[in-house]
Automatic annotation (TrEMBL):
Keywords: Membrane, Transmembrane, Transmembrane helix. This is Uncharacterized protein. It comes from the Bacteria. The chain crosses the membrane at residues 35-55. It comes from Paenibacillus monticola.
């Protein structure tokens, strides 16, 4: 089993375990950040598996955070 598939499996398990806890919090900003960072992680793993060149993950996270309310650069 390759490391990328193992990481995808781990990310899926994290999604399944953390979603009920996030729903109980009733916090939309927390859910948006979790799902945004989770989607960035999935996209980075898939891009790595296909051999695509990619931006650094911290650049992706910064771009996502700018979309959230109050996420303007300082």
């Amino acid at each position: 089993m390759s490391w990328s598939l193992l990481l995808l499996l781990f990310l899926l398990i994290v999604l399944l375990l953390e979603t009920p806890q996030l729903v109980r919090l009733h916090s939309l900003p927390d859910m948006a950040v979790f799902y945004g960072v989770w989607a960035i992680a999935i996209a980075a793993v898939l891009a790595n598996m296909t051999g695509l060149t990619q931006a650094r993950p911290l650049d992706w996270i910064r771009s996502f955070m700018l979309l959230l309310p109050g996420g303007s650069p300082k």
